[in-house]
Design a protein that fits this description.
single chain, 11 helices, alpha/beta, Glucanosyltransferase, two-stranded antiparallel ribbon, 430 residues, globular, 14 strands
Length: 430
């Protein structure tokens, strides 16, 4: 249950604090506030409710009070109800200076790595519903067209379908004459064999209408007491991103070894090693679950109402965990020195599209992107580099299992696992 005293205190906070945020913009490889100062992301993966954490006003007030104390200026939300009213929660987070970065897919509209991959009208329609619901909020920082779609080293054949989604979302915004260009990006799994090919492919060439506006990496490399900038591999991540033409940031990070976490990677991300290249980080995650990545908890779950067998509650009065205290201290001590927008000259020009390499990067950079309604060929799904032929279909895709992906709820994965197996079996017969 929510404590009444905490709720009253939170209400008082929001009565006196109102920042009236203006949208952040992108110039070259950096985010900027409306006043021209550079925006560095100190974000939290806010997956309190797997279906939509932005519908409960009282819960948002309780959580936002602690997020302000933590020093957060962004949240990432993996799923929202396209028919829900988000006015209260978006305003609550706006008032404490927090931008929301939202995934457009729903549990039934993921672009699949397996299945084989496809991008169709059903998926686009559902993405658009989410976009339309949120587009009017000034603190909508950007939208993701996918999270960890490619999870294996031979999954590169799905990359063109990600780029097709970017293309069609941007086309829709242009056709509807949106009042501003809402940044569109992708959040990638940290697959060593694909770096930096996927990262570069999604932003290569000079056609901004099909390229991501930002790129997020879900990386958990900085682990262990003796880890450093070089030992962790962050030095290579930084090297591979040095000439990237759009903002790049950690869309998930925060290895939980050791426990409690020390968050030492934040000193590198916001320090002289990486601040000129990276735009910040989103820490995984807000609530405590069985995976032990939480910053706060709400106590044990009621088994009668628990979602998908959860043993931790997903709402109530948040209690600070040790990781919260450490992160608050770390973020308070890092102040990246950015550049003013009017003093910044973007020097990173178009980058070349990665060449097709059999068994490593099975994407022909000269091939046209898949059209709306197209499905990958069986040969392509096997890892071969082929010319795509149109094969239409409008069946909604189902979510695939990835135990390390923050955006996929266990209960929904269990429900859809059988359907995925059937789809894959049918694809093999074709």
């Amino acid at each position: 249950m929510k404590a009444a005293s905490s709720f009253i205190a939170a209400a008082g906070l929001f009565a006196t604090a109102s920042l009236a945020l203006e949208p952040i913009t992108i110039k070259g490889s950096k985010f900027f506030h409306a006043d021209g100062t550079q925006y560095f992301m100190k974000g939290i993966a806010y997956q309190r409710s797997p279906f939509d954490p932005l519908l409960d006003k009282e819960q948002c007030q309780l959580d936002a009070r602690l997020m302000k104390e933590l020093g957060a200026n962004a949240i990432r939300v993996y799923h929202v109800d396209p028919d829900g009213n988000h006015d209260d929660c978006m305003k609550i987070y706006e008032d404490i200076g927090v931008y929301a970065f939202i995934d457009l897919d729903t549990f039934h509209t993921y672009i699949e790595q397996d299945g084989p991959p496809h991008w169709n009208d059903t998926q686009l329609t559902e993405y658009i519903k989410v976009l339309d619901n949120l587009a009017g909020y000034a603190n909508l920082g950007g939208v993701f067209v996918g999270n960890e779609i490619i999870t294996t080293s031979n999954g590169s054949f799905a990359a063109p379908y990600i780029k097709s989604a970017v293309r069609d979302i941007k086309t829709y915004m242009d056709q509807k004459n949106f009042s501003r260009k809402i940044p569109v990006g992708y959040s990638a799994a940290d697959i060593a064999e694909l770096r930096p090919n996927l990262q570069n492919y999604l932003a290569c060439g000079d056609d901004s209408s099909v390229n991501v506006d930002f790129f997020g990496l879900n990386a958990y490399e900085w682990c262990g007491n003796e880890t450093s900038y070089h030992i962790s591999g962050y030095d290579m991540l930084n090297k591979n991103a040095t000439d990237y033409p759009v903002p790049i940031f950690f869309s998930e990070t925060g290895c939980n070894v050791p426990t409690p976490r020390d968050f030492k990677d934040q000193f590198a991300i916001f320090g002289p090693e990486m601040q000129d290249v990276w735009s910040g980080a989103i820490i995984y995650e807000w609530i405590q679950e069985d995976n032990n990545y939480g910053l706060v908890d709400y106590g044990p779950a009621d088994p009668k109402t628990a979602i998908g067998g959860d043993t931790w509650a997903r709402g109530g009065t948040p209690t600070r965990l040790p990781d919260f205290t450490v992160l608050r201290s770390v973020w308070a001590s890092v102040s990246p020195s950015g550049v003013a927008k009017d003093k910044y000259t973007k020097t990173n020009g178009p980058i070349s599209c990665p060449a097709s390499t059999s068994g490593i990067w099975n994407v022909d950079p000269t091939s046209p992107l898949p059209s709306l309604g197209q499905t990958a060929l069986a040969a392509e799904a096997s890892g071969e580099s082929v010319d795509r032929a149109s094969k239409t279909g409008d069946a909604p895709s189902e979510t695939s299992t990835n135990p390390n992906s923050a955006g996929k709820n266990k209960a929904m994965v269990q429900l859809s696992g059988g359907l995925v197996a059937i789809i894959i079996a049918l694809a093999a017969l074709l």
